[in-house]
Amino acid sequence: MAKELVAFRNLETHFKTSAGTVKAVNDVSFSIREGETLCVVGESGCGKSVTAMSLMQLIESPPGKIVGGEIFFEGKDLLKLSKKDMSRLRGKEIAMIFQEPMSSLNPVFTIGKQITEPLLYHLNMTQKEAKARAIELITMVGIPRPEKIFHSYPHELSGGMRQRIMIAIALSCDPKLLIADEPTTALDVTIQAQILDLMRDIKTKRNTAIMMITHDLGVVAEMADFVVVMYAGKVIEEASVLELFREPRHPYTQGLLKAKPVINQRKERLYSIPGQVPNPVDLGENCHFHDRCEFCMEICKTKAPPLRAHIDGHKTACWLYEEEGKAQ
Amino acid sequence: MSQYIIRRLLQMIPTLIGISIIVFAISQLVPGDYITATQNPNLTAERIAQLRALYGLDLPPVQQYFVWAKNMLVGDLGQSLQHQMPVTKVINTYVWNSFIIAFFSFVFSWIIAAFVGVFSAQFQYSFFDKVVTLLVFLLMSLPSFFIGLLAIKYFALDMKLLPTGGMTTAGLNATGWAYIKDVGLHMFMPVVVMTTLSVGGLTRYFRTGMLEVIRQDYIRTARAKGLKERTVIFKHAFRNALLPAITLLGFELPGLFGGAMILERVFNWPGIGQIYLASLNLRDYPLMLGFTMFLAVLTLLGNLISDVLYGVADPRIRLK
Ligand SMILES: Nc1ncnc2c1ncn2[C@@H]1O[C@H](COP(=O)(O)OP(=O)(O)O)[C@@H](O)[C@H]1O
Ligand SMILES: [Mg+2]
Q: What positions does the domain ABC transmembrane type-1 occupy (chain B) (predicted)?
């Protein structure tokens, strides 16, 4: 098995809001191995972006703060790095693309300027070298006439093109990890497929590890090697993609998979998990899914289940698989 | 671009005609004229009629308007009744005095406001930001005559650091550097007071603009690239925050030449603002109307300049 590149250990990222403390990331642990594509899935608001932003250390503070845990990158605890050392990693070793390609590029600078910026800054290239490299990158992400694009402004490009440019910027310094936070959510379906193709290309050709955030199980099925399922700030299940699709164990994961439309099996209505995501403010110590769970037991309402591997490499946080739960 | 500018300049013509009609009409609605406003008890009715005929005040208003407008077309704003010289000459004599204090306070207030606004946005809710916000409201609510007089009392009368008013020391016939130094000393307080008065609102403007920009996705992108915070703020954010300020920049143009009526009175500064005020009181219509038209032209030009600058600074805007 490949070497571990990133490891979250008991990460706690909280937001202080006027309504109370939001434990957006609550005791999250998982690892990403070199060259692996790991998908983080879960409903909106479950803490996927905050987990990624904690890794980048770009949590808006206040109100947010990483209050506990460790994030290792190649064995170094990022949370112990100085601001300067962290900013050297950012954009160079760890790059990130976002959900909103339309607003993620600075409207007043040319594409060329925005692509060459990290090259000049992190790799100390000359203007000329940087330009040549930028043209290469634009070509690589599949945009024709790179010379013209280099001198264009973001508003002259479509959403799909802009996301390609974001990918080009992210890949400019050949990062070891690429974080993609819902990179296709804001795009048309056909463009989505193209962007996913591009990402898969990157994965196979460059062996970059990818942390892909999505709520779309279709994307997971296409991209992931390994999957982490989050619910209300906690990891509730993790497994390899095949394992997870073959045997989802947590009732929430099962619900998610059931909610996914499958061709040839058209049903009257698509399944949806009953109930709603709990209010993230001041969540208690219990299984946060308990009030939506059809297997809910007494213990689920009072105690949070531990995340444990009951099968090799497949971890689940659910009382159904624990002695305490089985006893009931 | 040049086509755009030419079209905009042509569009100014009907606007200016409209403005000239309106200001002229208003001047006609104001009761009294120069003769009655001088309140000279020695004037006989006969002499008054003579003077009215001399100044063209006896003509019907419509005719007066056309005489005025026709002269204006060839750059003649008429004779100032009060100063007994051409209006253009009166304006030219005093406007530069107003301009120098307005210009320096413009430069200082924009630089200070930009820096303070940016920093207080960057550290929103910090102690610095709170102090700035408090000061801004304090400055914005201070009347100019009040801090003007206060400054005179402390710095000129009590501490005797600076002259109490005027533009030069009476009787000092300095030239060259000595003259510049003398004027500089006299300018100091008016410039400081004017800067103080305008810096509050501007700071708030920059702070709000920066806060707006800092929340944008592209700032997050810039941070994710690992750029220094300084680069993120002063390059990526500030460039964008400046865009709305450009509009404001155009509006400053008439202000640079318009004079500051109250402050010029307080500091006894021989600026156009004081002269303009006097022309209103004395019903010196040629001067009053002429200067009003001058300000109208500057306002329209300022508008045009801000649109052009905006088009240059924001690649999303293409002027056609
Ligand atoms: N700036 C913020 N201020 C307050 N709460 C926040 C902020 N950012 C995120 N949160 C909270 O953190 C939780 C997780 O958010 P996020 O990670 O963005 O969800 P998602 O899984 O959809 O990416 C949400 O419940 C949200 O309320
Ligand atoms: Mg998100």
A: 95-306
Global ipTM: 0.88
Contact B236, B307 (CB under 8 A): no
B88 within domain boundaries: no
Residue B38 lies in a domain: no
Angle B263-B265-B267 from CA coordinates, rounded to 5°: 70
User: Is the minimum distance from the CB of A45 to ligand 1 under 6 angstroms?
Assistant: yes
What is the pLDDT, as a whole number, of residue B317? 84
How far apart are the CA of A19 and the nearest CA of chain B, in angstroms? 19
Given a contact cutoff of 8 angstroms between Cβ atoms, the answer to whether A243 and A221 are in contact is no
Report how far residue A261's alpha carbon sits from residue A272's, in angstroms, rounded to the nearest whole number: 11
What are the residues whose beta carbons fall under 8 Å from the beta carbon of A189, sequence distance 6 or more? none
Inter-chain touch A103–B314, beta carbons under 8 Å: no
Task: Give the pLDDT band (50/70/90) at residue A269.
Answer: low
Between chain A and chain B, the number of residue pairs with CB atoms below 8 A apart is 73
Q: Give this prediction's pTM.
A: 0.82
Domain range enclosing B243: 99-270
pLDDT category of residue B179 using cuts at 50, 70 and 90: confident
> Which of A50, A96, A276 should be mutated for ligand 1, with most atoms under 8 A from CB?
A50
Measured between beta carbons, the chain B residues lying within 8 angstroms of A153 are: 315-316
pLDDT at residue A271 is higher than 80: no
Nearest CB to B227 within list A96, A100, A117:
A117
Q: What is the largest CA-CA distance in chain A?
A: 70
DSSP at B56: T
The predicted structure's pLDDT at residue B101: 92
Architecture of domain A4-93+175-326: 3-Layer(aba) Sandwich (3.40)
Q: Do A106 and B220 touch (CB under 8 A)?
A: no
Q: Is the CB of A288 under 6 A from ligand 1?
A: no
Over 70: is that where the pLDDT of B224 sits? yes
- The mean pLDDT of chain B is 87
pLDDT of B246 > 90? The answer is no
CA B148-B189-B113 angle, to 5 degrees, is 90
Average pLDDT of the segment spanning A261-288 = 74
The answer to whether residue B53 is domain-embedded is: no
Closest residue, chain A, to B229 (C-alpha): A87
